[in-house]
């Protein structure tokens, strides 16, 4: 049972209807179907504001549940635990981010809320400029592909019923260090030093709280958060109060390639790249790759290998129609076959770009087949691959290079 509202900003009634009501229905369905086992995807949110190590065997420890999301995830897990009909296994993922291999993500949540602030910082300051920040405590971030694979692995292991498993990173993750990983991926300035949280926690909170109630400061704060796309509700939950024991999960995953999630450092760049290309709310409509290229005819010269071939595959995957141009028809047909096998469309045109008559014939054929060409990727080219000093007696190399490249 996976369906749930995973959103700190969602209204309380939505959280209750989906998380609690939906889990009730899932249990009823499991009972009606007499299933062998119910796998319930919960969340580390059930630990709420618990202080200390929250073990996998723990559940109702009197912890404070500070938001509707925390409360409804707790109640959902309680429903699964207390039903007497079928054995269960509970999985509690940490803060889930995009795919560690592709960067793909389908919603802004968790650390993604702060990507726009990183992007703005990049525009205001040079990358080398050191920043001073606040120690905001700990967090716990894991990629979605690891969570899915670990859950699948544990689900197929024997004799693990009626237990909970923390799908979290056992390594310490500080909020400022996570921020720095994404800032590095964005080529933005990073925190060189963070003021120790023990110092800020020791200071009285009322002066700042009082200042924030004054209309001018409150207005500035609200405008800043709105411009950066950071919801008010998210700020209160940046820090995770509990730490999470992972012994049960580690034991179940032992011997597999999933014993620990990949470190954020290894895939933060992919997450940032995907967000900036596909999810950035500042992107003008029609400027994402799929919106820009969908249905467009794109002529690619030198499309039989290398950059040209890779470009053709990328354009076709985004819904564009590559017109593949090169001298080698066999290689072009291989590229076209790969595109068609992936569900795309492409056309092959053999031509020698260094021969003007061949170019004229190419254009006649292309414009007879298609109403127009929307874009040109002028990729075909030649490199002499030696220094000028070693080329004085090879004037034909210059001629051939200029004929094609110019």
Overall pLDDT: 89
Detail the poorly predicted runs. none
What's the number of helices? 16
Broad shape: globular
Considering the chains and any ligands shown, give keywords for the structure.
406 residues; alpha/beta; 4-stranded parallel sheet; 3-stranded parallel sheet; 16 helices
Q: What does this 3D model show about the protein?
A:
This protein has 16 helices and 15 strands. With 406 residues, it is of the alpha/beta class. Helix 5 crosses helix 11. The longest helix has 22 residues, at 12-33. The N and C termini lie far apart (61 Å). The model has no long low-confidence stretch (mean pLDDT 89).
Topology:
Layout: H1 12-33, E1 38-41, E2 52-54, H2 68-82, E3 88-93, E4 95-97, H3 115-124, E5 131-134, E6 138-139, E7 141-143, H4 144-155, E8 163-167, E9 173-174, H5 175-186, E10 191-195, H6 197-202, H7 206-213, H8 215-228, H9 232-235, E11 242-244, H10 247-253, H11 264-279, H12 289-293, E12 297-301, H13 306-317, E13 321-326, H14 329-341, E14 347-350, H15 356-369, E15 375-377, H16 395-405
Parallel strand pairs: 1-3, 2-11, 3-8, 4-7, 5-10, 12-13, 12-15, 13-14
Antiparallel strand pairs: 6-9
């Amino acid at each position: 049972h996976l369906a749930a509202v995973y959103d700190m900003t969602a209204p309380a009634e939505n959280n209750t209807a989906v998380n609690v009501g939906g889990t009730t229905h899932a249990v009823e369905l499991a009972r009606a179907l007499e299933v062998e086992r119910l796998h319930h995807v919960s969340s580390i949110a059930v630990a709420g504001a618990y202080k200390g190590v929250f073990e996998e065997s723990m559940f109702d420890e009197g912890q404070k549940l500070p938001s509707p999301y925390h409360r409804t995830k707790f109640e959902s897990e309680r429903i699964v635990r207390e039903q007497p009909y079928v054995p269960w296994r509970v999985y509690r993922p940490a803060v889930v981010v995009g795919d560690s291999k592709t960067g793909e993500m389908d919603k802004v949540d968790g650390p993604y809320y702060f990507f726009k602030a990183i992007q703005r910082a990049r525009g205001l300051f040079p990358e080398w400029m050191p920043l001073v920040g606040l120690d905001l405590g700990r967090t716990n971030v894991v990629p979605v592909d690891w969570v899915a694979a670990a859950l699948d692995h544990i689900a197929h292991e024997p004799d693990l019923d009626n237990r909970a498993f923390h799908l979290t990173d056992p390594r310490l993750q500080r909020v400022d260090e996570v921020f720095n990983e994404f800032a590095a991926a964005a080529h933005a300035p990073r925190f060189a030093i963070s003021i120790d949280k023990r110092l800020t926690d020791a200071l009285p909170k009322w002066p700042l709280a009082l200042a924030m109630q004054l209309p001018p400061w409150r207005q500035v704060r609200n405008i800043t958060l709105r411009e950066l796309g950071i919801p008010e509700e998210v700020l209160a939950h940046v820090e995770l109060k509990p730490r999470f024991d992972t012994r049960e999960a580690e034991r179940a995953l032992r011997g597999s390639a999933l014993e620990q999630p990949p470190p954020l450092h290894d895939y933060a760049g992919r997450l940032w790249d995907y967000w900036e290309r596909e999810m950035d709310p500042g992107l003008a409509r029609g400027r994402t790759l799929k919106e820009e290229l969908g249905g467009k005819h794109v002529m690619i010269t030198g499309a039989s290998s290398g950059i040209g071939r890779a470009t053709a595959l990328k354009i076709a995957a985004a819904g564009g129609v590559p017109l593949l141009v090169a001298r080698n028809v066999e290689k072009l047909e291989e590229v076209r076959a790969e595109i068609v096998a992936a569900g795309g469309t492409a056309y092959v045109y053999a031509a020698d770009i260094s021969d003007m008559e061949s170019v004229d014939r190419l254009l006649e054929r292309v414009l007879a087949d298609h109403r127009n060409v929307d874009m040109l990727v002028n990729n075909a080219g030649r490199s002499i691959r030696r220094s000028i000093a070693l080329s004085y007696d090879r004037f034909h190399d210059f001629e051939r290079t200029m004929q094609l490249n110019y």
